[in-house]
Structures are given as C-alpha cells and as structure tokens.
C-alpha cells in the first residue's frame, strides 16, 4: 500500500471507495509499525472487510480501536503558531499531527478515550460536532461517505490532489492509470466546491443529487452534502462565478459558490 | 516432431507452435503410461509408485490438495523451463498478493522450503507450490512459461476466477 514518510500519509490505494481515507502512523514504535486508519464510522465494517480482502497472507492485524478518541484541533486565530502552546501528555496522546489535508483544518489528535483534553491542550474548548462540520463545509473540505460516496466520487474532482491525497510516484493501484493520466494531461472540469444558500435549508428537503442550474437553466452541477445554509457541490468550474440556484421540487433556491483560499493559486482553471 | 517443411503455413513461429503442441501431446502421453519415479526421500502410500497423470505430489499428509481446494496445471513450456532452471530442491512458488493495478498480483519465486499449508503440483519432474490462501485465487489456472518479444516469464494464464487484469499479466481482479 505504499507506506512512507514520518508522520502521516494520506489516501488509500486499494480501491475507489478506500481512496478517501487518511492514514496516521504512530510517532514512535520500536517494534512493529502501527498505523491508525481514520474512517467514517458508518463504514467501519466494510473498510475492515476491504482491507482483509487484500491482506491475504501478509502479517498484518486489522482491528478497530474502540478505546481511542479522534479529535480535530482547530485554532481560533490564524493557523501557524499553535505548536508552541500545545502540551503533549505522552501517555494519553497517541498522535498529534497537523491535519495532512490542509492548514485550515488545524491538527489531528488521537487520544485514549478517557483522556482529559484540557490537560493536553490548555486553553482549548470542546466544541459542538456540528460546528466542525460547518467549518469543513465553509472551507470546502469533504469528509466521510456522505461527502464522498463510494463509487461515485472521483479523486481528482474531490480535490484529493490539493489535499495531499494522491501520490503520483507510488506505482500501481486500482485506477492509477486514469488518475495519473487525467492529472498530468487531462482537464478537470468539475470540482467539489463550498456553496452557500441564500437562506438555511433543511437537509431532508434536498433530494439526493439535486441539480444546480445557471440562470439560463443549464446544468452547472449537483449538490452533494451540507447542513443549514452551507454545503459542498460538484460544480463545473466554468459556471462558478455565475448566479446559480438549486433545483428543488416546486422551488429554486439561490446559492453562491466560492473557490477555497487553501486551493493552490493555479487552481480553478 | 517433423521440421517445418510439411507445414505450409509458413513462418518459423507457426512451425514452432506446432512443434510445441506435438511435444506436449507426447509428454502427456508419456506421463500417463509411465509411472513417475519416486523421489529420493519421499514415502509413497501403499508402497507402489503412482502414475503422474494427476500431477499432484504424493507426499503424505501435508501437501496434497483436498478436493475443494482446487489445483493448478502446468503447461509443457512451464515444465521444461523449470527443469532447466530449478537447481537441487528448488521449486516454483506461486503466491497471490494484494496490490498492482487491478487489486491482486501474482508473484513467482524459486523456493526450497515446503510448509504445512502448501500444496504441491508436480508434472514431469517439475514442481509448482501454492499456499492454500493463494490457491483459492488461482485454482483452475494454468502456469505457463511464455516467451515473447517483450519478455520471457512465468505467467498465470486462464484463471477462471480472474476478471481481465493488466496487459502485462501480473495484476488481476476477482469476479465476485
């Protein structure tokens, strides 16, 4: 599976639905290397089964870590100088590493379940999980199977290449030829982008794969996931600066798309 | 086998192909009517040598495959090549690993150690060994030694469980 690099590496290699995961490697492990794999809890079983399918005879144990907690640590001020204020309690903290995807996602922290967060990060405050999701959608960071449906979401359109999610040097994996060719030579016309509705919209009211249209009624893309007035949508880059609307049964809701600040400067072309 | 003059289809390759086919028939026929000589150190059940047509090892207990486990077949070119390259106790080991452009890949190596979960397939004095986990992925396949312009190598051909894999033949996916 192409393991390398000190703190973390991002992205699965085995098959399409495993691509959208992050791998975390424990910092010091004198004996066998341990790797913690973060995944959407709703697909824990299928991720395990998937890994076991390809394991065959390798001496690898795959087991869920039900005694660990995963935290996102997002700085309130501008990111950058958070490292100095973090106090690592070594016995409670297994992993503390910058989120491999992008600076705006802060840090990833893995602790024992009973750990006291205020000991590990003094001055922090434990927020609501909904705020975390809002932060992600505002920044346009997809996560989990709702944002990245297996078999539907494509790695380049999902901006994995902007999030350190694809290695172009690791050799063969399922879909490697198409991914490498498109990245180096092809044009990516659609991408997942953060969108904002003119007013909060209950998610249950939005049909799956609801179309997003330009003013002239042409299809500009599809809504993927979100909450309240925020969300992410797969949109044609050619249309993102135009006024857009979400097509709903019996209604149209205005929305605007933005190019995330953390995308590389050359992106969005 | 008669040299090319009698086959008007022309081209050395065709003639060689025909030669190989004739040769394989001869080898097959030969093996079925001549019992395999027992290898030194091998204890054969019942005391009398068994014909090699079924092409599986007769080492007691460990390495004979159960009916459900399946087996692999060795092509004539595979047997010939193995007889040429295997030295001493060496045999050809075939393993299946995760990886490659299609999800799984074949790995060939020369080995000398047979483990309790190995299954041995012998033909004409050449041995191919597959562990039970890998055998589940390759049962019913043929192991061939193919010589092409681009490479000469051992290959797994006609795997009934595999979907079309990569063009170099190393990686494959499984029909579910």
From TrEMBL, chain A:
The keyword Mitochondrion applies. Residues 189-265 form the CAF17 C-terminal domain. One of its GO terms (biological process) is iron-sulfur cluster assembly. It is found in: Mitochondrion. The keyword Chloroplast does not apply. InterPro entries: CAF17_C, TrmE/GcvT-like, YgfZ/GCV_T_CS, YgfZ/GcvT. Keywords: Mitochondrion, Transit peptide. It comes from the Eukaryota. GO terms for cellular component: mitochondrial matrix. This is Iron-sulfur cluster assembly factor IBA57. The gene is IBA57.
Automatic annotation (TrEMBL), chain B:
Pfam families: Fe-S_biosyn. One of its GO terms (molecular function) is iron ion binding. One of its GO terms (biological process) is iron-sulfur cluster assembly. The keyword Kinase does not apply. Residues 74-169 form the Core domain. Residues 1-28 form the signal peptide. Keywords: Iron, Metal-binding, Mitochondrion, Signal. It is found in: Mitochondrion. PROSITE patterns: HESB. Residues 38-69 are annotated as: Disordered. Residues 45-61 have a biased composition (Low complexity). GO terms for cellular component: mitochondrial [4Fe-4S] assembly complex. Involved in the maturation of mitochondrial 4Fe-4S proteins functioning late in the iron-sulfur cluster assembly pathway. May be involved in the binding of an intermediate of Fe/S cluster assembly. Heterotetramer; forms a dimer of dimers with IBA57. Interacts with [2Fe-2S]-ISCA2 forming the heterodimer [2Fe- 2S]-ISCA2-IBA57 complex; [2Fe-2S] cluster binding is absolutely required to promote the complex formation. Belongs to the HesB/IscA family. PANTHER family: IRON-SULFUR CLUSTER ASSEMBLY 2 HOMOLOG, MITOCHONDRIAL. This is Iron-sulfur cluster assembly 2 homolog, mitochondrial. It comes from Dromaius novaehollandiae.
